[in-house]
Every structure is written in C-alpha cells, then in structure tokens.
Amino acid sequence: MKPRTGVAELLARKQLLDTRAQAHAACSARLRELRAWQAERLSRTYADLHADPHYRRAVEFFLHDVYGPQEFANRDRDLARVWGYLNRALPQAAFDLLAQAIELHVLTTELDLELIDALPAGPVTAQTYQTAYRAVSKRGARARQIDLVVDIGQDLSRLVRRPWVALALRAAHAPARAAGLGTLQGFLERGFAAFREMSDPQRLLQAVRERETRLMDALLNQRPVSASEACAYGELP
Length: 237
Prior knowledge:
- By secondary structure, the chain is an all-alpha fold.
- It has one domain (7-233).
- It is built from twelve helices and no strands.
- It has helices at residues 7-23, 25-45, 47-50, 56-66, 73-89, 92-118, 126-136, 139-159, 163-178, 182-196, 201-221, 227-233.
C-alpha cells in the first residue's frame, strides 16, 4: 500500500508556482501560449484514438482534465481545503488518483516555467520548442511526467471495475456540489465515465507511454524521427 503523504507539500509548491506565474503579465501570457501550443500537439498525436468512439471520452479527459492548457485553481483549492478529510475518507485508489493528478500538474507547471525561460523571443514553433526542450533537458522529470499520466489511467482502470465506486460517486454528487467541491467531484466523475466506456484501456495507456517516450527521445537526442512522429509532432528539425 502506497503511503498517503506529500499532498500538502505538493499544494504548497503549486501555490509558489502560481505566485511566480501570476506576478508578471508577460510570464502568464507566455505560459498560456506555450500550453496552447502543447495542447495542439497532443491533439494531433492522439487524433487517431480520439476518432475512435470507444476512446474519445478518455482522450478528452486526458487532454483537458489531466494534461491540458486550462487552469486547475478551482480543483486544487478544493483539494487544499479538504485534503485532510479526503485522506481519511477516500479509498486508497481514489486518493492516490487525486494525489497523482496534483503531482502531475505541479511537475508540468515547473517544467513549463523552465521552458518559457529558455524559449527565444517570438512565436512558439516546433523548432523553438525543441531548442528550449533540449536546453532544459530534465529527462528524469519528463519520464516521471509520462509515468504519472499512465499511473492515473491505471488507477482509473482499477476503479471502474469496482461497482460500489459508481454508486459512491452518484451518492456524493449533490453533497459535494453543495459543499463547494463541484470541481473536484466533476474531475472524478468524468474520469470514471471515460474509462468505463473503454473495452481495452491498455491500448490507450500503451499508446501514451510509447508515443510520449519516443517524442521525448527525439527532442532530447536529435535523432531522426519517423514519418508518424513528424506528423504527430509537427515540423521536427
């Protein structure tokens, strides 16, 4: 059983990162530009799975709720306010899912802030992104980022096989929203619904691990990329 620790520390790191990002308008604008570019890249990389009705909702959950360009302040504020209660009340797998989502967002924000420091002036392009990506490097952190995305999917895959979880989410819907925890509740409900529709979630999770790892290697190692990678990523130099 994994220890239920680290959430408070993650939320403290998140607050410091938000303070830095919001301190300067230029930093906030550059961060939004970078995240929009990355979201577009992700949508191309997983366009084939998004076109499959069995995987569409799960892909959208990952692109918008797990690793998207939007701000997660409401969800994180909900969690900061009640994480001590959730630590006691939630099943281990559900708590781990939330903790991993927060860790992923904190890690992604840290890497994105380093990227915008390394990006040259002007629009974000495949060329400037690769240059900044290689300058920052952080292979270990990038690999951890991929692991967290896959781990979140694995946890959801296990949760949807437990019938009582669906009943618990339905029962908690109204009380959670009345308590001001609607954002957090919505995150859990969307993830559960998306993974319940898939007959083979491992196909999606394997695609995430393989594609993101190949792209990481291409960006860091300057190796030749395949036609499929170039199509998914853009104009890699």
